[in-house]
Known about the structure:
Radius of gyration: 29 Å
Mean pLDDT: 86
Shape: elongated
Number of helices: 3
Helix content: 55-70%
Strand order of the largest sheet: 1-2
Low-confidence stretches: none
Oligomer: single chain
Largest sheet: 2 strands, antiparallel
Strand content: 15-25%
Structural class: alpha+beta
Number of strands: 2
Order of helices and strands: HHEEH
Amino acid sequence: PAQSLAHWLGGAERNPERVVAAAVAEQAKAGVRASRQARIPDVTLFAAGYWQEGQALLPARGGVAGVALNWEIFDFGRRSSEASRSLIQQRMAETNRDRLEEEAAREIRVAWQDYVY
């Protein structure tokens, strides 16, 4: 039996080129997340304890705790330019994915019209 056009157009999403382009778009989206996370400062909490015997001038037990903050203040726009670049790459990958899907749908539509008519 003849299938409807909607059934055949559902295959446009399973086009191998489109699947690869969708994977590239997901990679680009991960790159955007990574570039945004690079703007977050690194915070480290640490604690240490000690126990000693033998020196009367020092306490026998003690501890140290602290916070270390590592953040590059003056990056001269490097992080924002990396975020912009990764966002542009994501948009390009999404545009390519959509273009490939539309191209596959167009080819399927033409083949279906040739088959039906």
